[in-house]
Amino acid sequence: MTEAAVANPVEPAMSEREEGNHVVYTFQNKTFRLDKRKARERLEGKKVINGLRSAELNVLPLKYHEAYRIYKQMKANHWEPDVIDMTKDCTLWNSNKLSPKERWIIEMGVGYFSAAEGIVGDSVLHVIEDNLTAAELKHASLRQIAEESIHMDSLLHIIGSLNIDLDEVTAKFQDIPSIKRKNEFITRQMPELKMGIDLTVTANKQKFAKAIFGITQVMEGTQFYALFAMLLSLHRQNKMTGIGQMFQYTLRDESNHIALGRYILQELINENPDLWTAEFKQELFDFMREGVTLEKEFVLDCLPEDIVGMSQKDFLEYVDYNADRRLTSLGLPAQSDVKNNPFLWLDEVIFLKKEKNFFETRVTEYQTSGSVKNTNEDDLI
Ligand SMILES: [Fe+2]
Ligand SMILES: [Fe+2]
Fold first, then answer.
1. pLDDT grade, residue 29 (50/70/90)?
2. 96: CA distance to ligand 1 center in Å?
């Protein structure tokens, strides 16, 4: 038994002692008996899925430390679209100095992402977050949903600043077959998962795992990157720098979303090894391959022929390169023989090194004061 009395006469005395599984606090005329065994049970009851559910979103006792670390990293990277100066973009957009093919890339970027960000936000909310039971995983997912809203807001900032016709943007999303196919491919299994399925059944656990894989590794991790690279190629040529800056921040956020999705998947598999069968691994591999095929079709729509500073071959290879990174990070085989990143310069953007002359804008200084530079490069891919 331990006895710790506070001697300060100004402060009321408080004592603490242990009694078996309890710790007893006495404070003036009050006594609190806290059950340590219950706290341990609560920790043990925490699971990615099928864990103890409680009415409160209390991350304590913390079990999934990596999710909390990613949450803090996401929070440190907070940004606001409407502080990005679009003056130079507007001047260029309204001049004849942008080629029709360059304008097409911008329009495809706005058209695709304005809907895609919403698909991700909705899926993370209703499919991933709803089915998770551990509070710190839900907590990090909720931060991701907030960031998807920021990304949607950035698209509105672009549309409003450039005075792009909203009907045209919407029509682009609805009428371009490669965009429709990409989005339908990701969302086709979501309705069932949104209804709430019995996640004690192995086949349903696999559906849930596939949805996480589809949203975070195939869509965000593979199908977003080629268009990011096109928009940032323009930025690199000092064209549409406000848009480039926003996509630079977005890309940094997406790298955290990919890391979070991978972590949740890994923990899900660790706790539910029954789902990780050879057949299911093959299913995920095939799913990624289909995603790659659709993405290459989309790349060729965005960039129908090589233009200054952009070659189709590089972007197609970049799709394979990213797909293989996502697959191998989960212990799955690569689906291509592309080994090298065709856009090494893009690493400078992703890792946000202090390259003040590389961009005119001050990207690296936009982190909040509590922010530290991301140290785990795997998280920044
Ligand atoms: Fe996003
Ligand atoms: Fe995202």
1. confident
2. 31
